[in-house]
Design goal:
With 286 residues, the chain is α/β, with parallel strands linked by helices. The chain folds into two domains: 10-183, Rossmann fold; 190-275, Orthogonal Bundle (N-(1-d-carboxylethyl)-l-norvaline Dehydrogenase, domain 2), CATH 1.10.1040. The protein is 44% helix and 13% strand. It contains ten helices and eight strands. The protein has helices spanning 17-28, 40-59, 95-108, 124-128, 162-175, 190-206, 212-223, 229-236, 238-252, 261-268, and strands at residues 10-13, 33-36, 72-75, 86-89, 114-117, 137-141, 151-156, 178-183. An eight-stranded mixed β-sheet has the order 3-2-1-4-5-6-7-8, sandwiched between helices. Helix 1 (17-28) crosses helix 2 (40-59), helix 6 crosses helix 8 and helix 6 (190-206) crosses helix 9 (238-252). 46% of the residues are buried.
């Protein structure tokens, strides 16, 4: 499934946290990347951010220190993805925006090009029902940061073809990642379980029963959670988490997914976690 008939190239839409992380993973594995975003300011800082994250990933041994690095290009127009082998959309978790972008992608790329939505909660078939060639669309839920976490959630929608799933496996092999295929539905597996747990943890803090530090220490020390749910919220991005919780709440009716008032307050205050320097904890922003 090669859209350009020659060199394999990945197009990534969205120069936010996830788009930057996915691009870093790909070029670190020697895959040429075109990063597309309509926001000139984001693109203006993207090269430095990717360079910094690539250096960090190599220092940590998460990406090879030697060997070729994939070429990195930047673009503001969807037309730049026309020769892509694979396309990954990694924009904000808003179904209407994702649908609009996927319609534009489908019109720009060659027939048979793998089109992926990187989503944590929106059902793949919800998007597929509104775009051309729905059989060529699949979901991959990259975890943050993509270059450190080697296992991914692959979502096969009801209309996703076997040919498309083969292309997904080919892409993951190139990226050196393991995909676990799950069925479609709001939140799939990871977000359906994790995001409600984080929401409950935030409610416990809001109710004054424990500090964020104590909640995380208990979840780490007693239950073996590697970082604690609230440190995880900071890593995901509290704004992204709230978007996903609203998706889950609206599509399942589960009141446990209604975002905590504490999460909503942090978003309103601009305290989104690691990327802003403050969430449940404080961080140095690179």
């Amino acid at each position: 499934m090669t859209g350009n008939g020659g060199e394999q190239r990945l197009a990534v839409f969205g120069a936010g946290v996830m788009g930057i992380g996915i691009a870093t993973l790909a070029i670190g594995r020697g895959v040429p990347v075109t990063l597309v975003d309509v926001d000139q300011a984001r693109l203006g800082t993207a090269r430095r951010r990717i360079r910094d994250e690539l250096r960090l990933a190599q220092m940590m041994g998460a990406l090879p220190r030697s060997g070729p690095t994939g070429e990195l290009q930047f673009a503001e127009s969807v037309a730049a993805a026309a020769d892509a082998t694979w396309v990954i959309e990694a924009i904000t978790e808003v179904a209407e925006l994702k649908t609009k972008v996927h319609r534009e992608i489908a019109a720009a790329v060659a027939p048979g090009t793998l089109r992926v939505t990187n989503t944590s909660s929106i059902p793949v078939d919800e998007l597929a029902g509104q775009v051309p060639a729905p059989e060529e669309l699949a979901g991959i839920h990259f975890m943050n940061p993509p270059y450190l976490i080697g296992t991914l959630e692959v979502v096969r929608g009801p209309r996703t073809s076997e040919r498309t799933m083969t292309a997904v496996q080919e892409l993951l092999a190139v990226l050196g990642r393991k995909g676990i295929v799950v069925g479609d539905g709001p939140g799939f597996v990871t977000s359906r379980v994790l995001h409600r747990m984080i929401n409950d943890a935030a409610n416990v803090v809001e109710e004054g029963r424990a500090t964020a530090e104590d909640v995380d220490a208990l979840m780490e020390g007693c239950l073996g959670h590697p970082t604690g749910p609230l440190r995880t919220a900071d890593l995901i991005g509290i704004d992204n988490l709230v978007d996903s919780l609203w998706v889950l709440h609206e599509r399942t009716g589960d009141e446990g997914c209604r975002p905590s008032e504490l999460l909503l307050r942090k978003v309103a205050e601009g305290n989104h976690g690691r990327k802003t320097g403050r969430g449940f904890y404080e961080y140095e922003v690179r």
